[in-house]
Amino acid sequence: MTTWYVLVEEDTRETKYADGAELKLHRWKLVATRGIGSTAEEAAAEAERIALQYVPAVIARHARPGDRPARQAYLTPDGAWVVSVRQRGREAHVRVSVARLMHTQAESEAPPPSWREKLREAF
Length: 123
Description:
With about 120 residues, this protein is an alpha+beta fold. It is about 20% helix and about 45% strand.
């Protein structure tokens, strides 16, 4: 049985300076995964709920209790939600999608090199 997940991605912005110019670098970052259940319908319903309620970190950091940011939510043909959230001059974008977990692999470390291998590397 395949487990369905809701994935939440945020458009994060980082400001860098190069040669006296300010560069605003954007990239999508996976910020949350949530296992839902065994059906795509359950996952789609949860994705909609999250898309309509999730507050990105850049907005939440400056929010006061009781604040409700402006929100525009778009449903794409493939079932993903793209959401624009604005509050007090700040804007953030969120993508919420449904996915099946198809593969997982645990981390494994190689054994430390033997003393012979260390000597070979030294010479």
